[in-house]
């Protein structure tokens, strides 16, 4: 069973999912299994949704598969003779691993006043989902969705936390109501022990509902202090999964007590769309990284350099260190490209040690570049001396040309060309000093390049 359905296991409403191609039931939450007389998911394998849900022998005449689309819930009312009551249904299309599924949530809304209130809330959240999915970037989608959910559920703050590489939690997205103090900047790299109890619940498919913060004063003191500092009195938090791994959580602070259960249901329902947006964001980041990062040395490539230069401020000081790894072709020819790659990565590591806090780029097969914005003149030349010492320690020679200007008002391109010219002068001096093989003559003049295209 896909992990995404487990969001709905503990919901008090009936949730069931069917394959849109053949109407096979593939999931029912615990409430639905109990209501229809099943004890496990294994018992529904091979059964049709229309057979189980409505005791029909053929697909339902009101089946709305053709009307469903991702990111939108179709709401409708129908008397279910099996449940023996009027029920509000919320249907949507969910895509998972290339398959399309019909997910239906059956809600007994009770009295007319309660139904009207619920329908109004859901209409607002549906509108938020529609607007969110029209945004240009996944991050904008997440921000809009958090805002609509926070306002519809009358919370003071909605947020997303993601577990980082060190195992701590980062508050990556946040919406706050008017007059509420933002907490995002204060909630970066939250120690794992603070949310340890929550993650233990997440791993067995549970979410967190705190109706009164004082309830966890004794049982979860670290989390109590964390929430107390933020003036949180109540909350609902739902886990976020990537396959079987818990990657974080999202939630709402201080919703009205009367809507805590409803907020819990809505957050679980919307978790699928939160995760989808996070995955899209991560994919875009990866593609951008691949487009702007040299895959061998893991520093920027020419595209990254052009963008970096475009963001420079002309009134600031600028230092440029233009480097050429000497003898790379001979190493490739005599020892193979594996040895040549190692030579390049070793040279790049030396550059990182000396200028790692600045913009580093590989702009050609054997050419490396450091662009140092707002560096002092003394610091630049000291960095170059450190670079040469690092290279000597590794028995690597790299021709280096450096230049510093108080500002770059005359154009970065001219500074780059001058640094390159100085690098070639250093390279020619090296070849002359050590009388190396000259069967491949060097061009010692500056070459014309475009640095802005």
List its salient traits.
453 residues; alpha+beta; Beta-Lactamase; 5-stranded antiparallel sheet; 14 strands
Morphology: elongated
As residue ranges, the low-confidence spans are 438-453
Rg:
30 Å
Oligomer: single chain
Mean pLDDT across all amino acids? 86
In the CATH hierarchy, what is the superfamily of the largest domain? GAF domain
Tally of alpha and pi helices: 12
Alpha-carbon distance between the termini? Answer: 50 Å
**What is the annotated CATH architecture of the largest domain?**
2-Layer Sandwich
The percent of residues in helical segments reads 25-40%
Q: Which structural class do you get from the secondary structure elements? A: alpha+beta
Folded structure, characterized:
This protein has 453 residues and is of the alpha+beta class. The protein has 3 domains: 1-108, PAS domain (Beta-Lactamase), CATH 3.30.450; 135-292, 2-Layer Sandwich (Beta-Lactamase); 302-434, Reverse transcriptase/Diguanylate cyclase domain (Alpha-Beta Plaits), CATH 3.30.70. It has 12 helices and 14 strands. It has helices spanning 30-35, 49-53, 112-132, 138-152, 196-202, 221-229, 260-292, 302-310, 328-335, 337-355, 377-393, 412-434; strands at 14-19, 25-28, 74-80, 85-96, 99-107, 157-163, 169-176, 208-210, 235-242, 245-253, 318-325, 359-362, 367-373, 398-405. The protein has a 5-stranded antiparallel beta sheet with strand order 2-1-5-4-3. The protein has a 5-stranded antiparallel beta sheet with strand order 7-6-10-9-8, sandwiched between helices.
